[in-house]
Amino acid sequence: MENTPHYSGSEIEPKPDRSLWYMAIGLGLIILIMGYLTFYVDDASSIFSSKEEAPISKIEDNSDVLIDNLAMSDEEVKSSLIKFIEVFYNDQKKGYFDPPSYFPPITQTYYNFHNLTYQRIKEIHWKRLADMKDLDLSWDVSSLEFERNGNEIVVNYLTRLNYFQPSKNQDVSADVRYEMIINEEGKISSLRETEILNLVESPRSYQADTSSLVDGNNIYENKTSAKDVQSGTESQKVEVVDDAKLYDSGNVESVPEYRGGPKALAMFIGSRLRYPAKARENRIQGKVYISFVIEKNGSLSEFKVIKGIGSGCDEEAIRVLKLSPNWKPGAVKGSPVRTSYILPVSFQLAN
After folding, report:
1. Rounded CA separation 155/129 (Å)
2. For the CA atoms of the chain, what is the radius of gyration?
3. Whole-structure pTM value
4. Which CATH code for domain 69-203?
5. Are the CB atoms for 113 and 194 separated by under 8 Å?
6. Average pLDDT, the chain
7. Considering only the top CATH level, what class is 246-347?
8. Which among 46, 69, 122, 172 has the fewest CB atoms less than 10 Å away?
């Protein structure tokens, strides 16, 4: 009989499988690391990246830097004016124009228009830009000059304008000097052009399409028939003035006015205005802005308070204006038209 090796069960002992232990330990470490990253690290990618994060630059809003201008020194005013004008034009370059950020509720002058609400300023602004395509505007900081006038700051500065004017099919460049008046609240009460220098107008070579001329909301077509050409005459479209239409005082050819002019109007109001007792007791002063309609015959109607000061002053301003004699009405194409108007009435107590 062959000698067959015999192994007893006690001689071979199975080794324990440790792979599950290693897997459990590895998973536990991963969970610990993820928990640490979640609770103690804001940006986990920054641990594995050597690139430094660029600092975030914050754009500062300087539209209210002049709100306390009465208490400022001249140097502080100049510095604040530079910031204010920079933001004013930078916003417009970005296509942003928000009148409440820069103007009071009623603005005395905006270019050639007067006593304007926020909505009216917006309309004028976008209407001007419609004929100033590809506008490139920069202002010369070194040209800045200012002086204090009571509670106001009168500012003068020079700008450089370049744009295409579609209505005349020409490129325009010019240096324009502006006058900006800042009130005691740090808002622009007046903005107007005072001087135009180095004006260059360069017609473009191609012929502009003048088959339709747009004026506001009206479109006038330029049509000439062959018969008109042969006879040497050209048909003319006659604009008919709408009797019922209400025009804005800035959109008429002849602006309505009190007969005798602004001085006569001031004398009329001053001679009839009675200071309300309640306003006098409470030392209420300021301006009441009244809107009204000047009819075609010059009479006044549809009185409304646009901005009041209360204590009976609003009602008194309307009462006096209702006593006004007829004005010289506004006119379009030589014909009188109904025109809206805004007038400030001042209430000032004697010291």
Report:
1. 23
2. 37
3. 0.52
4. 3.10.450.50
5. no
6. 78
7. alpha beta
8. 46
